[in-house]
Structure formats: C-alpha cells, structure tokens
TrEMBL record:
Domain of life: Eukaryota
Entry annotated with the keyword Iron: no
Keyword field: Membrane, Transmembrane, Transmembrane helix
Domain Metaxin glutathione S-transferase: 6-69
TM region(s), chain numbering: 107-129
GO cellular component: SAM complex
Disordered: region residues: 82-102
Protein name stated in the entry: MTX1 protein
Length: 151
C-alpha cells in the first residue's frame, strides 16, 4: 500500500508539473526545493528495491526536472566539484597545498590543551608538588595532621 501511495504521489506531481520548468512557472519556489530534495535521491541512489525508482524514471518530465535542477544549481554533480568547494586529499599531495602548517597547528593545539589541563590540575589542588626536607636520610616528612596531633 505504501508503494501504491508513493507511485500515486509521483504521478500527481508529474501531472502538476506538466511541461513547465518549475511547479509555479519559470522560476523556482520553495515547493521546488522540497520536491527536488525528495526526488533527486530517489532518482540517483542505488536502492535495494527499485520499483519506485523505475516508476519515477518512467515519468520523463520529473526526470527532466531533476536533471535540469542538478545542472543549473549543481553543475559539478557529474564531474569535479567547483574550485571553491573543499577538495579531498589526493594522491598527489594536494592536501599540503591547502594548509601547509596543518601539522604544526595540530601539534600546537595539543600542547596548549595539555598546558591548560595541567595548569587547572595544579591550581585546583588536584595535583601538588611537595618538596622533600633536608632532614636525615630515611626520615619522611610529616603530614599536616600528624604535626597538629603531636602538639
């Protein structure tokens, strides 16, 4: 029943679109963004059960609609992304060109974090440094409570 309703919805969308470029004429509206966000993955993704995908592919105007929006707003979809988009690190070392000081910055951020944590530990009293006394060898310094008890 779910497939039947989805097929009916696609058919109704196809009828509503007709031969127009967008649902409300020649310029896109929020409905176009919403419909495209649902149709494009259905059209492009590999699905385990392709019944609905096959029905969408049979509705040529919806396929043309998706293709038109993809080529208009996502021209790099079929090939390389635009130069302003972040690139993945390639085998040719293109990552080094993007940020030559990346490794140094990572190391510095780790060191700053470590210093901050140690500073907090010392200031809050979690960690303290006790100096040994210059007393005779083998003599352990007394804790504050032991000194108070002796008096």
């Amino acid at each position: 029943q779910l497939y039947r309703e989805a097929r009916e919805c696609l058919t109704l969308l196809s009828q509503r679109l007709g031969s127009q470029k967008f649902f409300f004429g020649d310029s896109p509206a929020s409905l176009d963004a919403f419909v495209f966000s649902r149709l494009a993955p259905l059209l492009k993704a590999r699905l385990p059960n392709g019944k609905l995908q096959q029905h969408l592919k049979s509705l040529q105007n919806l396929c043309n609609y998706c293709t038109s929006i993809l080529s208009l707003y996502f021209p790099w979809d079929g090939g390389d992304p635009p130069s302003s988009a972040p690139r993945a690190a390639g085998a040719d070392g293109s990552e080094a060109e993007e940020d030559p000081h990346k490794r140094r910055n990572q190391l510095l951020s780790v060191l700053v974090g470590l210093v901050a944590m140690l500073g907090y530990a010392f200031l809050s009293g979690i960690v303290s440094i006790q100096r040994g006394s210059a007393g005779p060898p083998g003599h352990q310094p007394m804790a504050l409570e032991e000194e108070e008890e002796e008096e």
